[in-house]
C-alpha cells in the first residue's frame, strides 16, 4: 500500500510538472513573447469577440480556419457585455447573439424577463454549460496553436448596450442597486456590482489556470463609459491574488487608448499594453522604455479594403510591437470559415486574402532571430521616397528587417559593417521574393535598389 501511495504521488507530481508554462514575456527581450519554448509574435485577423458568448457560433470551425491561415491569436469577450444587431453598423455581428442565445458566466434564473429573450440571470450562481463551452473553446484553440486573449469586461457605450447586460438590475434577480452605465466599473459608485465582478474574475482565473495559451485582458476600451483607472488596477490585483494560490501565472493585458498615449502609471502586474487603431504606430516608440509588449489588438474605420490593415500590421510590428489583431468581419455565424461578404458600409475589413498577407508578416518576423533586434532606422542614411516612410528592426552587423510604404521604387543608402550579406526584397501582398542579391560592403555606405512596388515592400538582410 505504501508503495502504491508513493507511486501515485510521483505520478501526480510528474503530471503537475508537465503542465505547460503559459505564454510569457521573453526573458532576453521582454518586448516579445516566449511560448512553448519559442520566441513569438502574435498575429491574427479574428472575429468580433463573440465566439464563446454567441451560442450559434461554431468556434471549432473558426479556430480551424485560423490555423489553416497560419495565424496564432484570437480575442474573446466574457459575456458581461454584448451588442444588438446593427450596433456600430456591423452586419451579422457575432457579438450580437440572437434572442435567447447569449451565454454568460452567470446562470439563468427561473424568472422570465431578460431583455434579449429567456430568463433573467442569477449573479450568485455559475452556468456550468458556459464553462464547459469555454473549456471546449480553450481546448480547440490550444491544439491549434492559437493564443486566446480573454477580455473580461467592456464599457457600455450607449444605453441600448447597458440594457442587454446581465449586470443591469433589470436583467438579474439579485436586487443590486440600479446604477448608471457610467458607474458600473468604479470602486465607489457600483451599487454592489464590484463584488460580482471580482467573483467572476476569481472563478474564471481559477477554472482556466492550467491553460498555457491564455492572456487576461482587463477591459476593452476603458477610456469610454466611465471606467476608472483605479477599478482597472483593482481587477489586475484580483487576478494576481487569485493566481498566487494556483499553479500558473498568466500575463495581464491592458487596453490603453485609441491611437497613441504615453503610459504614466503602469500597474506592475500588467505585461502587455494594447492600443486600438494604432496607425501610425507611435504608441510603440512612446512606451518602448517600459520593456513590456506593446500590442495593436483592434483595427477598423479605414474602409473595407485589405491594404490599410496590412500596412498597419507591418508598420506596427516593424517598429517593435509584438501583437497585432485585425478585426475581421468576414467571420459570422454560418460563415465561421471567414467567407462572409459584408456590405461596403462595414466599419472595417477582413478576408481570406488579408489573412494570407498577415501570415506573411508573422512568418517574416519569425524568419529572424528577432529577440536580438531593436527598432532602428539609423542604418538607412538616404533614399527613402519623398512620400514614403520606413520602419525597421536591426541587430547591427548581423540582421536587418525593413518595411517601406509609399513611392514605387527606392535606392537606399545604407550603413552596414564590412561583411557578406544576403539581401531579399519581399512583396508583402503576395509573398514573392521580388529580388535577391549578395552585398559585400567594405564598411560604411552601400546602396540597395529596390524593385518596383505598389504600395509597399519589405527588405530582409542577413549576414
Largest sheet: 8 strands, parallel
Sequence of strands across the biggest β-sheet: 4-13-12-11-10-9-8-5
Low-confidence stretches: 4-18
Q: Report the end-to-end length measured between terminal Cα atoms.
A: 62 Å
Fraction of residues in helix: 10-25%
* CATH class categorisation of the largest domain: Alpha Beta
The helix-and-strand class reads: alpha/beta
Shape: elongated
Count of individual helical segments: 9
The count of domains is 2
Number of strands: 22
CATH fold-type name of the largest domain: TIM Barrel
Structure explained in plain terms:
- The protein contains nine helices and 22 strands.
- It has about 475 residues and is α/β, with parallel strands linked by helices.
- The protein folds into two domains: about 350 residues, Glycosidases (TIM Barrel); about 90 residues, Sandwich (Immunoglobulin-like).
- A hairpin with a 7-residue loop joins strand 1 and strand 2.
- The longest helix has 16 residues.
- It is elongated, with a radius of gyration of 24 Å.
